[in-house]
Amino acid sequence: xxxxxxxxxxxxxxxxxxxxxxxxxxxxxxxxxxxxxxxxxxxxxxxxxxxxxxxxxxxxxxxxxxxxxxxxxxxxxxxxxxxxxxxxxxxxxxxxxxxxxxxxxxxxxxxxxxxxxxxxxxxxxxxxxxxxxxxxxxxxxxxxxxxxxxxxxxxxxxxxxxxxxxxxxxxxxxxxxxxxxxxxxxxxxxxxxxxxxxxxxxxxxxxxxxxxxxxxxxxxxxxxxxxxxxxxxxxxxxxxxxxxxxxxxxxxxxxxxxxxxxxxxxxxxxxxxxxxxxxxxxxxxxxxxxxxxxxxxxxxxxxxxxxxxxxxxxxxxxxxxxxxxxxxxxxxxxxxxxxxxxxxxxx
Length: 347
Hints:
The chain is α+β, with helices and mostly antiparallel strands.
């Protein structure tokens, strides 16, 4: 029985069963095999053009993103949103994929691939170390060939210069702040509650109180949503979750007992943390969960926050029934919907 050990000199040793050590020399690195681009200048030049071409493709992908951002503007239909997302994703995908493949081919075909051992040393900021660090940087510049290959260098610089532009356009959509726009939605006295089929319905399915059984959940929109000028924006503000509980499970404040109807309650679907859609309802615990950051709300107590980063309850929509038994809103939300970091105290 034998085992391998490493001697202080770097040579390996073989321990035998009788305790004697049989030493052998470190074989070192295997013989280096030259790549085609190392020995054939034509192949190296061809690889250089390929890499530069990929950087150009990356630039075209970035430009496709920018053009798509302005040309394929989402309108009032889900198909336009899908086309916009497809073109934006395609442009960004081409940009990132091309620049990544180009970097891999550059390192694989043109940068030196010799193996070497670098001894560790103490890290400190002496002048000698700074000189060594500068030498390493210069050596890297020389080995990468970025100084000797202006075609690759210039296309890389151009591709990297264009790369941040999509982020600028995306961040531009984060503003301006909504101001007072979140204080008013399409909900109003007498507006009937309708099922949300996922789009903007021409003939929404109205909801009767008898349709809502204990434990059921409805994604709800105002019946007049399809008449709104900016339907998607209004839907984003007016989206509601409708649930029915056993009335004995509700712990309602005295001034809000009239906001529900026989255990049926309605709350804004927009999380008060950063505005994600709350859509996960746990029937046994009566908890609503936001999938983005796990804020959890207790439906039995006016959707108060019981876990997560949200700082205030989901706004409740006061509801009742009309003469035909359909669920209707008593008024708009009594407070602004949406994330709490916006200016919510201006009306």
